[in-house]
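Q: Please design a sequence for this.
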């Protein structure tokens, strides 16, 4: 059987530092005073009440170029590790956590068995579980039983009730805010998180392709054990053992059905078109915090329970699917999701479908959530807070290495921005997303200063696609979006892509948010359902950078929106198009067209098209008479702090 191993070469080089050199002179010459004023206002970000700010967010807010360069390099490092194959999965986990300022404990990896007997491999599996179990217990040693129970139980409340913005606290919302703060505080101060990361790395070593081939050979043709299979399992079972960490099961090469209730510590299936239901690579209780499922081949179906697939919940949940066209039906809180733990979903090959509710597909609060897919034409669907979402103290990522993929997030939760009386079905009706590379905190907006202490800074959400002609469609707050000290990163490294978003998309955000969007290669098309803020658009003390690099011929169809360099209320934003014959259609359905190097309320914004004979079909005008027309070879100043440059 052949298995995909992606190449490690061919990735584009980082571009943010290079573009800083390209545009910094114009910024200093034309809007230097405005930029200095904005940076002066942003310099106080560290003092703003919000718990558990990430160092990278503070850096990007106070020194935008340095922070955005660091953010891009971090994304590139993750892409390189992902493209290096299964052996680098432990390193990828550690690198994701390093981006949050959270190191991993060192540990001595257990050597893979050199022999091919079942007994050797079974002993190795038990030793791995024991090592990971000791590390998890070390991570939790400072927590009381009540604290452990609280962290485990409150994960479900976060998944069900989290929202990014609360207008004051009352008798209903105050208890939730208190519990959310306690959750993040326990993770930050009482959990030995470095040991938890190491436990995840120990288990992730089981993705090693060479060892999996030897394991498969060792159990090929083996007969069923004397003990009966555990309840909920049908089909051939080759190994069944009880351990202090839960059950260990190895299923045969034919079709199996697994109805799982959280008692499984390790399940390996050798092949067949299998069906999994319930708590799949997810903890069922506080005591059993580690669960691993490895499926070696077959077109499989996964039907998860809530917080029930590759979910790290006060522990580690790891699902490895080595081959096949698989379907993942993800209830909320699953599909590579972490809550006081680490959840990893690793799919090595096949045309897969990920269909999920909220907090699925690389989502986390107080933990790590990763969905890594190496190959195939895949489809990702979710309602919100998903597909690369980092909530408070969380890092979430979807990394797709190869294939023509489809990403969708939204169409479920109505936005508070909707006009009174506007109903679903109206083309102007807005939904929330907070996904496709979005980081968000929990902002308590109140006139009572005593309530500000319940505000929680956002984490880091990332969507990184290395290759393929991809299609992205999302609702409000998405595609490199940061909200309230959250960081959002979206990198598309190759292909002719379509990026369709809505309000606050393509490097856009608000309230001390940081967003970076980079498309490196290809002839791309950008669209938005509007009505505002796309393509390097910042609101209220935020920092946003949108880039389309390379010499592709791109189309920006923002007739229902505005942006491409737009900043309001003491913000910093840039949009940079490197080259090609591009076409711009930029309007705004509400209040007239704005963008392409416009700013207001003590902000700085810039639009740069660095090369190419472009078509400015519909563009904003800086004056009522239209004499300041945006076009090829022009440099225009917006008096409030905006700059338009076409070279």
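A: Design:
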């Amino acid at each position: 059987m052949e298995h995909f191993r992606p190449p490690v070469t061919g990735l584009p080089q980082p571009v943010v530092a290079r573009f800083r050199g390209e545009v910094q002179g114009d910024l200093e010459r034309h809007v230097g005073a405005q930029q200095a004023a904005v940076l002066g206002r942003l310099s106080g970000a560290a003092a703003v009440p919000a718990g558990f700010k990430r160092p990278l967010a503070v850096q990007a807010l106070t020194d935008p170029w340095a922070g955005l360069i660091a953010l891009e390099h971090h994304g590139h490092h993750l892409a390189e590790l992902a493209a290096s194959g299964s052996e680098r999965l432990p390193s990828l986990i550690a690198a994701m956590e390093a981006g949050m300022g959270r190191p991993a404990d060192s540990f001595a990896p257990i050597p893979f068995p050199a022999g091919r007997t079942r007994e050797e491999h079974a002993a190795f599996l038990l030793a791995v579980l024991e090592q990971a179990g000791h590390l998890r217990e070390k991570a939790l040693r400072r927590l009381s039983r009540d604290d452990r129970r609280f962290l485990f139980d409150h994960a479900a409340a976060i998944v069900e009730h989290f929202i990014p913005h609360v207008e004051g606290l009352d008798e209903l919302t105050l208890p939730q805010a208190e519990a959310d703060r306690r959750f993040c505080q326990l993770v930050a101060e009482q959990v030995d998180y470095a040991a938890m990361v190491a436990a995840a790395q120990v288990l992730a070593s089981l993705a090693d392709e060479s060892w999996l081939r030897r394991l498969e050979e060792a159990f090929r043709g083996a007969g069923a054990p004397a003990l009966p299979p555990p309840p909920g399992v049908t089909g051939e079972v080759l190994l069944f053992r009880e351990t202090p960490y839960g059950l260990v099961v190895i299923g045969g090469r034919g079709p199996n059905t697994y109805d799982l209730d959280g008692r499984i510590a390790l399940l390996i299936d050798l092949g067949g078109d299998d069906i999994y239901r319930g708590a799949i690579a997810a903890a069922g209780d506080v005591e059993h915090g580690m669960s691993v499922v490895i499926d070696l081949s077959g077109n499989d179906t996964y039907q998860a329970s809530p917080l029930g697939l590759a979910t790290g919940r006060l522990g580690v949940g790891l699902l490895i699917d080595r081959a096949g066209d698989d379907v993942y039906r993800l209830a909320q809180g699953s599909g590579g999701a972490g809550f006081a733990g680490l959840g990893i979903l690793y799919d090595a090959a096949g045309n897969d479908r990920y269909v999920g509710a909220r907090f699925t597909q690389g989502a986390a609060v107080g933990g790590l959530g990763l969905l890594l897919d190496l190959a195939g034409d895949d489809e990702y669907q979710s309602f919100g807070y998903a597909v690369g979402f980092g909530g408070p103290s969380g890092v979430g990522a979807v990394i797709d290495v190869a294939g023509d993929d489809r990403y969708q997030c939204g169409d479920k939760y109505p936005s508070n921005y909707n006009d009174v009386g506007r109903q679903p079905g109206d083309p102007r009706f807005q939904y929330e997303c907070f996904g496709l590379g979005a980081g968000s905190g929990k902002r308590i907006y109140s006139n009572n200063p005593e309530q500000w202490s319940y505000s929680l800074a956002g984490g880091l959400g990332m969507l990184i696609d290395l290759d393929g002609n991809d299609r992205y469609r999302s609702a409000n707050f998405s595609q490199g979006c940061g909200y309230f000290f959250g960081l959002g990163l979206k990198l598309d490294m190759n292909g002719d892509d379509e990026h369709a978003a809505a309000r606050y998309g393509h490097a856009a955000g608000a309230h001390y948010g940081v967003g970076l969007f980079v498309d490196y290669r290809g002839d791309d098309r950008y669209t938005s359902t509007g009505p505002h803020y796309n393509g390097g658009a910042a609101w209220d003390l935020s920092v946003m950078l949108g880039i389309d690099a390379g010499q592709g011929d791109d189309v920006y169809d923002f007739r229902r929106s505005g942006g491409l360099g737009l900043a309001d209320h003491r913000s910093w934003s840039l949009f940079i198009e490197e080259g090609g014959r591009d076409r711009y259609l930029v309007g705004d359905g509400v209040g007239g067209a704005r963008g392409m190097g416009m700013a207001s309320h003590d902000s700085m914004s810039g639009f740069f098209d660095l090369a190419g004979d472009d078509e400015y079909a519909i563009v904003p005008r800086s004056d009522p008479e239209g004499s300041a027309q945006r076009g090829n070879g022009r440099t225009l100043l917006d008096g409030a702090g905006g700059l338009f440059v076409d070279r």
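Q: Thanks. Anything notable?
A: The chain has a mean pLDDT of 95. The first strand starts at residue 165 and ends at 167.
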